[in-house]
Amino acid sequence: MAEFTRQRGKRQEDGGLGSVLDVLLANARLVLGVSGAAVLAIATLAVKRLIDRATSPRDEGDPKAEQKTLEESWQDLALIKATPKPPKKQRREDLSEPLLSPAQLPAPGEAHEPRVCSVPPETPRVESSPPRCLTLQEKLLSHYSSQLAVPQVQVSLTLQLARSICAQLQNFLRSKCPELPFGSLFLSGPLLDGLAALATNNIHLMLPVVLDTMLWSLIPGENTVVRNPRYWMIKRTDLEYFPRGCSPWDKFIVGRYLSSNVLNETLHKMLVASINWPAIGSLLGSVIHPVVASQELKLEVKHDQVELSITLFPVVEMEDKVLLAAPPEGLVENLWLESFYRAEVSKVKELDAGDSGARQQCLCILNGVCKSHPALHKLSGSPLTHVVLHLSATSSDWTEESLADRFQQVLEELVGYLEKGVLPSYFNHKINLFCELLEEEIDDMGFMLYRAISEPDLLLKEK
């Protein structure tokens, strides 16, 4: 009975182990494939035999039985060693094809063709190089070419419109005021002289006022009521011998002086009320209207492709002086502003031609920077040109390769002049080009430029 119980328990254990092995083998094909399942079956069979022999009663004293058991054990062990090992399972991320679903697995007994796993070609690794830091020289040249260079088509159309308006205005003045000896109108401004920066639409229209030097003389600015050497007065002379009316300009005299204010007011009325600008604009394919509220003689022109602003300046040339009818703001009348623009442009071009310099390029960048910056816009134009001219007397290397050095040097010079509050004119050291700036404006400009010396990017940012 005891022996029966022992054998029954053994069979139950064997049956339970067999059931587990059968389930394991049945699912091995799904998980490991056919070859893997075969390997596992052989190994399992060998292990099962070893377990059976270990748990079965041994016939002690029977040499043949012991020999048979030993041979079978070695055969099973040899079978396990001789069975090829299944290939190592590849990591899921290394496989080029997805795992097969149970429905896609081959049926039992069906020939299984070896599947060749194609390895995807290795993508060449492109090492990203860190962004290159541009030098100040490269930044200036890039800023000049990308933001300041004016398209030639735009320049041509702007100048064509300006010249057409100039011709129309010239014809009107000759027919309306034949008694006034106006000279031939001509265009002026940075656009014509290659110093244009950002705003290409500002054109100056110069209207020469021809005076008889026997009847008129100049009064130096130091002797005027404003005591400013930049402003001059034009005095009517010899009234005892040549009374009023001898000169066609006598109608614009105030206190024996040719009044720039009276002349501007007369021309302003003509521009606003007497000229048929709608008809002229229609003829030129644009819309033209005078700026009524401005003290300047200004026209706004809108075309399909460009917009421009034209400012009319009556100009007197006497005794090698160029005087504009641009009086200072306030109650002071009759004053004429001395202009150095023509001399500035001529001198800069002369210096550049002499040493193949980049002064004009440097000025273009500086003007563009100052025009686009709220705190620096009053520095553009004449003040910058005079700083460059002063610097040219001490710095001889103005080649394009030294553009960055000269640019920073101009900024340093400007900070020095602003600290003193004085920028002497290159052509007349008595004239302070900063004399009309407010103290707060000078402080703001100096602070901004002082920062820009060490951080030029503050000025070169796109607006």
TrEMBL record:
Main location per UniProt? mitochondrion
Pfam families named among the record's database cross-references? Mab-21_C, MID51-like_C
Which top-level group of life is the source organism from?
A: Eukaryota
**Topology of the protein relative to the lipid bilayer:** Single-pass membrane protein
Q: Which GO terms describe its cellular component?
A: mitochondrial outer membrane
Q: Which UniProt keywords apply?
A: Membrane, Mitochondrion, Mitochondrion outer membrane, Transmembrane, Transmembrane helix
The answer, when asked if Transmembrane helix is one of the entry's keywords, is: yes
Q: For this entry, list what GO says about its biological process.
A: mitochondrion organization; positive regulation of mitochondrial fission
Which residues does the UniProt record annotate as the domain Mitochondrial dynamics protein MID51-like C-terminal? 155-344
Q: In what residue span(s) does the Mab-21-like HhH/H2TH-like domain sit?
A: 359-445
Which cell locations does it reside in? Mitochondrion outer membrane
Where do the record's region annotations for Disordered lie? 80-131
- What's the protein here called? MID49 protein
Organismal lineage: Eukaryota, Metazoa, Chordata, Craniata, Vertebrata
